[in-house]
Design goal:
Blueprint (H helix, E strand, L loop, with lengths): L6 H23 L2 H7 L10 H26 L5 H24 L8 H21 L12
């Protein structure tokens, strides 16, 4: 019985793909009441039509990311560039909320520990993906 290479990476990518897929579908089909609830009841004036439009557009982008992650989970060795892109994206997404926390007054919407906690979780997922990603050997073939 031959062990399937990169089984843990495939499972992590599929779980991450499913979570991103569910989130993106919610973003695309959500309305103002659901967003008010998800955003922890901000003032009514803060949730504008432009924000709803942008969230639906981001839902489409995240749905594209969901498909990329699913396809990368089918053959991680050939799609290592997608995995590297997700790792870099998670690192950027860990830093940008901290910059926003320092420059904008978002503490009235979210507690600072939520922002720090999300950044730490994103860095942890990026570290896990980096640890599990396929490595190149000297001959150019991935190690199994």
């Amino acid at each position: 019985m031959v062990a399937q290479p990169y089984r843990a990476l495939r499972i992590v990518l599929r779980v991450f793909s499913a979570l991103v897929g569910v989130g993106s579908v919610l973003m695309i089909f959500s309305g103002k009441p659901l967003l008010m609830r998800v955003l922890m009841r901000p003032p009514e004036s803060e949730v504008s039509t432009l924000l709803l439009f942008i969230i639906k557009e981001m839902g489409g982008l995240f749905l594209m990311l969901c498909v990329l992650l699913f396809l990368a989970s089918r053959d991680p060795v050939r799609n290592v560039a997608i995995i590297d892109g997700v790792i870099v994206g998670l690192c950027v997404l860990a830093i940008t909320p901290l910059v926003s926390l320092a420059t904008f007054d978002i503490r009235r919407f979210y507690p600072a520990y939520f922002v720090w906690g999300r950044s730490v979780v994103r860095l942890g997922i990026a570290g896990l993906l980096f640890y599990l990603r396929p490595r190149k050997s000297v001959g150019g073939n991935a190690q199994v």
